[in-house]
Structure formats: structure tokens, C-alpha cells
Amino acid sequence: MTDLRMTGIGMTSARTRDRLVQRLREQGIANLAVLDRIRNVPRHIFVDEALGSRAYEDTALPIGFGQTISQPYIVARMTEALLEGAPSGAGALDNALEVGTGCGYQTAVLAPLVTHLYTIERVEPLLARARERLKELGIRNVRFRHGDGSLGWKAHAPYDGILVAAAPLTVPDALLKQLKVGGRLIVPLGPEGEQELVRFTRREQRMERESLGAVAFVPLLGGTA
Fold first, then answer.
1. Mind telling me the catalytic residues?
2. CATH fold for the domain made of 3-214
3. Where are the domains of the chain?
4. For the purposes of burial, counting CB atoms within 10 Å of the CB of 145, is it exposed (0-12), middle (13-18) or buried (19 or more)?
């Protein structure tokens, strides 16, 4: 991948990204490591070339197969919520799971902030595309799996953090069981038009639930495609 394509020009330039980061600050995103990732991950390489000029708008965009790349604010908000309370900087979490790799943008934002990242995608062509993009970005601490994300990835559990990038009606029990004590699960919940972003934190004897506001995600589907 050429340096010019990576750094961008015009509507994909550093100046455009800086404006996006400023908007996110104004919307309340405060984690400097997260803002730095939003600034430096070239979102335009994760969407079709025809949509490249819109890559740094704060909006979701289609990536095919009925899926979308989440708006930057939501990516930043979910990442910040996952990391909250953890040490700052690289390796803030040791072991994290992402459910719904999609095009790999959220993966690329999160990967340098954790030591080990495991990501699952049910749509095989999307997973292949994400794997290629992260390889081009030199991100090497991610393991990929084509599978049903609602089942989690038990072999690498328990996790310090789990981030779910699609909305189930109720939280899959398997994901709750794969959290460490003190671990956090960030998940959009509910039917279309009525979804809320929720953070679950596992305590010794209970599961703590916190609403983080209204969101709109594609539904979490079982099986593979």
C-alpha cells in the first residue's frame, strides 16, 4: 500500500482527520490514546474507494453484505468505555475479544491498546478483507476467526474486555461467562430503533450494568456466511 494512499489527500488528509478528532472531543471523548488512534488509523482504506471522500464524516457507511463500518464517534465511545479504569497507553488490557470484525476498522483502532486481541466475524469475505487491511497496517497482535460471535472464543477466555459490534436482543450467556472478574463487556442491546449501548462489569457475586446511551447497530446474527 502506497504512503500516499495511507496518509490520504484532500478529504482523507491529516487536516480532515484533525477536524474529526476535534468533533469527537466536543462530543465528550476524552481518552487521548483513543483519539490518537482515530486520528492515525486511515479509515478511508476500510471503505470502497467511491466512499473514500466520506470516510472522515462522523457517520456509518456501507461495507457490503448488509454490514456497515460504525461511525467514528461510536467506535471511539465503545473503545473508551472498554478501557475506562484500565492503565493508559499500549497494553491497557491484556486479553480482549471483539465480536463482529466487519471491515476491521474497530479492530485497527483497538489493537494497539491491548496486548492480545481476538476477533470473530461470521461473514468470511469480510474477515479476509479485514485481515489484509490489518496486515498492511502492520498490526500483528490480532488473531482472527470465522465463526459465530455469539458463542465467543472460549479457548482464549477469560477476557479483560469484550466489545460487540452488532446488537443482540439479549446478551449471549457465553460472552458473560467468558469475562474475567473485573472485566467489561460493551454491547449494543435491543431491537432496531430501540437499542442502547450497555457496559457490563463482572463482579465477584454479580454483573453490574450501566447504560451508555442510545445507538443504532445491525443485528447480531448467529451462524456463519
1. 70
2. Rossmann fold (3.40.50)
3. 3-214
4. middle
